[in-house]
Amino acid sequence: MLKAAQDKYRQINKMVEIFAPLIQAIPADRLHKIVDMGSGKGYLTFALYDYLTSVAKADIEIVGVEFRDELVALCNRIAAEAKFARLRFERGAIEQFDSSDASVVIALHACDTATDDAIHKGIAAGAELIAVAPCCHKQIRRQIEANKASNDLDFLLTHGVFMERQAEMVTDGLRALILEAAGYKTRIFEFISDAHTPKNVLIVAQRAKKSPAEREVVLRKIADTKAYFGIGYHHLERLQGL
User: Fold this and answer.
1) What pTM value is reported for the model?
2) DSSP string for 82-148
3) Distances (CA, A) of 132 to 4, 175, 203
4) What residues make up the domain containing 54?
5) Which of 62, 74, 143, 213 is deepest in the core (most CB within 10 A)?
6) Domain-embedded: residue 217
7) Cα 123-125-129 angle, rounded to 5 deg
8) What is the rounded average pLDDT of the residues 70-92?
9) Separation of alpha carbons 199 and 21, rounded Å
10) Taking Cα atoms as reference points, which of 204, 52, 206, 203 lies closest to residue 128?
């Protein structure tokens, strides 16, 4: 293990520790395929497949989706050499990938609105579990900065570092609300210390039953939050047609 890769190693191990029991809790008849959106070099994809098939003895297919041809070729070669028969990597953009048969959708640090694309694909598939660790949050921050809505947080948002942190919280808070409107129970938490990565927030969404009245309450919260911060739209909101 290279010294420079220690932080990544800890992140991946923690992800597997969190994801594995959530995935294993899904009834076998509803667990068929896991899709890793924006899989990159496949660190998480390989680790999760190895654990689920070798340790948990799960009969599962995992697909990594990656836009860069060279990484897709590399990962498929390694999967073949490792004899990981039901692990494969496909070349393509997240927003164009057919995820209709996905039971679980995960994404580790998909940049900005690519995280929203991954969440949307999971919702569209009716996935039992959606879990994403967001990356940058530019789309919402630009709107907050441009519109400068007057509210009780003015004294904080004049400072760039607080604006950045606020934009991250609002972006991910709205993602959680939009997932709830789509019929999911959501949690947001730090999955690892920020000493290993500043991008250490994880959004976990599990399918749940919600009444029409509960959905309306969530939709009002979304509208109120947007108005409070001067946000015209959230990318995930548009994808969901809200």
Assistant:
1) 0.90
2) TT-TTEEEEES-GGGS--TT-SEEEEES--THHHHHHHHHHHHHT-SEEEEE----HHHHHHHHHH-
3) 24, 10, 5
4) 3-137+171-209
5) 62
6) no
7) 60
8) 97
9) 22
10) 206
